Amino acid sequence: MRYYKIIIIFILYLCSCPGKEIEIYDPLKDPRNITRNKGVSTSPEISVDRNGNVYIAWIDTERGSATLYEYELFYKERINGEWKETEILSSEHSLLLYKKALLVDDNGDVHIVYSEPVSDVEVRSFYRMKRNGNWSEKYDVAGGEILTGDQASICKDDLNNIYFYDPCCFTKKVNDVWGEKVYINRGYSNPDMFVEGDGKVHIVGEIGMEIEYIYSPDGGGNWEGLYLFPRAYNEYDVRPGVCAVKGKVYVAWTRTREGKIAGTYISVKDTNGVWSEPKEIIGEETKPLDVLLRTDGEYLYLMENEIIDGNCEFIIYRMDVNTGELKGVNISNTTEEGTTSLIGSFEVKNNTIYCVWAEKYDDYEIDIFYDEIPVSVFDE
Fold first, then answer.
1. Contact of 339 with 311, CB cutoff 8 Å
2. pLDDT tens by residue, 102-127
3. pTM for this one?
4. Got the DSSP string for 31-65?
5. How far apart are the two ends of the chain, measured CA to CA in Å?
6. Are 70 and 83 in contact, with CB atoms under 8 Å apart?
């Protein structure tokens, strides 16, 4: 009996010895989490000024419900490294608020456009500007013309002229005055717009099951270069992005084939205006989604969500436009934690990639995550 007592005491001693605890990932304690509120925070947009100040907009349901009519448009900024209080820009409680775009110009003025319902059957696209800390009244930038649920885009040129496009019309703001509306009337779904520093405008969008491109060489005065990217009869192209760098134009999109994701495809318009055949750059094995293109003037950067080991991750690639070499970095990197990284946005400036995305860790719990990645990570 004495020996049994000794054994029991020894086992109790071993159990009481301090050991290395297994850390369980807590998304609420992740330093990248910048919302941490109860409910659904999703669909973030980001813009960064020349001083590295960060501006973010997203839709949110702080009350903890994911129902259609409780979404609001939230806004937050980080000035001189300090996050400010969250602002509510719209309380119309509509999921349509996720159709928005955000930018900050070289003067530090913030510009945002978003879709907002004005009745049970009517949706309009509104614009607001923040200057010297004050928001302007909302302006019906499309003049009541908008296709319900379709995406509006906003860009700028080197003169800080502001360009607006939705599938119904195009217009731009020069010296704080909005010009006439040009009705391109292509009826695109999920369009994207890129404006070069000298005012050249590039627009892509889904039309049927295909991706189409249109171009203005003079800031929206004339439109030309209409091009429909080729595909096979059993293929379906969606979610395009467009960007121009070093005299070439790049359009990338997700291609599906017979109901399954076939990969990310890209086509390049060279300096002679000739488009290349669509080329697969990321294969189907990672099930890529939601392509977004950016540039720092030297490289092309591509963001997409990919399924890696069963988890949806936020990935950014850098493409060498001279060689076509592609290198990728997992920005969210939450594979082992079992969370899901949803669609995000990013900007490349000051040799830094500023990233924002939605991180889902429960059916009704999604927060906005933010991080900064030096571009040198692609040289390692």
1. yes
2. 999 999 999 999 888 777 777 788 89
3. 0.89
4. TTBS---SSEEEEEEEEE-TT--EEEEEEEETTS-
5. 64
6. no
